[in-house]
Structure formats: C-alpha cells, structure tokens
C-alpha cells in the first residue's frame, strides 16, 4: 500500500541508505531531485563559457593546456549530471530545451564577465572552491546516482581549485600590475561566490525538506560559513584582501563574522538581469541549434543499425 511504501522510504532515509532509480520514491522527492540536478547540470554547461572565453588568449601553452582540460571537465560534469537526472525519468533534450527557454535556472555565478586572465585564477580558487564546499557533502546525498556522480566531480573540482590558486600565486609573485589585476578580480568575485550557496536559510524555500530527505546534507548558511572560514587563511597566504570590512574572527563562535550579502543583486541576477545572462543563454541556444545535424546523424545511424548488432 501507499502507506507501507512511504514508511519503507522514510525508514531507508532515516537509516542513511541510498535510494536508487527503481525504488519507490515520493513524487516530491523525485521532482526536487530533477530540479536540483538539472540546475546543477545546466550550471556546469553554462559554466564553460566564462573561462572558455580565455582559451584563445591564455598567456602560455601550459596555461592553455590546463584551461582546456578544465573546460572539458565541466562538459563531462554536465553529462554525468544529465545522465543522473535521466534515471529519474526525464529526458536530457527536454531539460536542455527548458534551459534555453529560460524555464530552468543555472548558477548565478556564471552571469558575471571574465575581464582579465586573473579571473581564470580567481574562478578556480573561489568559484571552484565554493563548488567543492557545496558538493563534497553531496557525495553523501540520499539519491545514489547523484551521490556517485559527485565523487568524480569533486576530484576534478579539486584539480580546478588547485590550478586556480597556483596561477594566482604565480601572478602575485609577478609585477605590481599583475598583483593589482589579482586584487581586482578578487574584489569582483568574492561576493558573487558567497551567493552561490543560495539564499539565507530563513528565505530558502527548499532547504528544510531537502535536508529531511537527505538530498542536501548542510544548509546554505552552514556551507557559506564554512567557505568564508576556509578562504580567509588562503587569502592571507596569497597576499590579497577580501573586500569585506566586516570580516573578523569571532572567538566566541569559532567562526569568522562577515558582512551582509547584497540579496537584491542575487535576485536580479537569478531572474535574468545580470550582466551576462542574455549572452550566456543565447550562446547556449546557438550551440544547440548548430549541433542539430550531429544529433540527427547519430539518430539516423542508430536507427539504421538497430538490431544488426552494429548500432
Ligand atoms: N544561482 C541560481 N539560483 C539559485 C542559486 C544560485 N546561486 N541558489 C539558489 N538558487 C535558486 C534555487 O534553485 C531555488 O529556485 P527554484 O526553487 O525555482 O528551483 C531558489 O533559488 C531558492 O533556493 P533554495 O531553496 O535554497 O534552493 P536549493 O535547496 O535547491 O539550494 C543550492 C540551492 C544550494 C544551489 C542547491 O540547489 C545545490 O546544492 N545544488 C547543487 C550544486 C549546484 O548546482 N552547483 C552549481 C554551481 S557550481 C558549478 O557548477 C561549478
């Protein structure tokens, strides 16, 4: 009966057991996962653009090889995540359609422009650092395919974070102009990085239920605090200033206090009013349309070889 199924599902969640695609699950659990995993997949794919812009302008062969590998990793992450979403009965083509029609979200962070090569370093350090902070706990998410995808994604994100930090260390050991460039990039990316964790817990409609279902393991504010605490010593080691006059160690709490995030800006960017929203989505749409012949050829090939064992 429905009651037995619900009780069995609840017991498995309480026992920290994984839910797998063929298992019974409440409709809300399924739709929440589709929403979060699709948004996550879209973020990885849209996230290729800000850094992809620097592939043809990387300052050395070494930097270009690293950046190429990184941007290709993001494509891979998008693919694992779309595959994880498909285990829930949705279709990747439909999810892509929803993205390019603006009916599904992707992370706010990718609507900011990359103005100099220092931005590539700061994205690695702060944006990928925030992504790791958010995604390591998701390796323990209750839905099996999502949790397993996160394991590999996090390993690759660690490489992304390291390459960014190493790039910044090198620039900070360079000329005064290079150091200025790094500080400028930190000033522009710090606050948007804090917004990646989502609205404050009190204004987050999904956190409570997603925590109860074990989809999320920490709240938005908990992860944001963790990120601030880990970034402060890294900023000191790098020799940059984080652009927040209220940032201070609070011995009583055992955490850093920090200033107020501009949530009006967050809302504006999420609802399409950021600097690059229109460009990001229109480029994604163009890439999708230009790739139509590849999808058609692949489908025709598959149809031709169906049942021949060569498909
Ligand atoms: N950018 C865009 N939208 C956001 C962001 C953000 N930074 N943060 C929250 N939102 C959206 C949520 O999707 C939700 O919208 P919806 O209900 O219309 O779908 C709304 O704001 C309210 O937020 P929450 O109730 O807090 O939503 P949720 O519980 O899903 O938490 C979070 C948001 C923390 C981003 C969660 O979805 C998550 O952990 N996702 C997986 C990680 C991820 O997507 N990372 C992508 C960027 S990292 C990278 O790709 C390198």
Task: Describe it.
- With 311 residues, the protein is mainly alpha-helical.
- The chain is 66% helix and 2% strand.
- It has helices spanning 2-14, 27-46, 48-52, 61-86, 92-100, 117-135, 144-172, 176-195, 207-212, 220-238, 263-273, 277-290, 292-304, and strands spanning 248-250, 255-257.
- It has a two-stranded antiparallel sheet with strand order 1-2.
- A hairpin with a 4-residue loop joins strand 1 (248-250) and strand 2.
- It is globular, with a radius of gyration of 21 Å.
- The chain starts with a helix and ends in a 7-residue tail after the last helix.
- Acetyl coenzyme *A binds at residues 35-36, 39-40, 43-44, 47, 105, 107-108, 131, 134, 195-199, 204-207, 210, 216, 220, 270.
- The site of acetyl coenzyme *A has 25 residues, from helix 2, helix 6 and helix 9.
Backbone CA Rg: 21 Å
Give the percentage of residues in beta strands: under 5%
Strand order of the biggest β-sheet: 1-2
Main beta-sheet strand count, sense and barrel state: 2 strands, antiparallel
Shape: globular
Order of helices and strands: HHHHHHHHHHEEHHH
Bound molecules: acetyl coenzyme *A
- Overall pLDDT confidence: 97
Percent range for helical residues? 55-70%
**Tally of contiguous helical segments:** 13
Number of strand elements:
2
Straight-line N-to-C gap: 42 Å
Taking pLDDT < 50 over at least 5 consecutive residues as the criterion, the unreliable ranges are none
Tell me the structural class: mainly alpha
Protein name: Phenylacetic acid degradation protein PaaA/phenylacetate-CoA oxygenase, PaaG subunit
GO cellular component, one term: cytosol
GO biological process, one term: phenylacetate catabolic process
Organism: Nocardiopsis ansamitocini
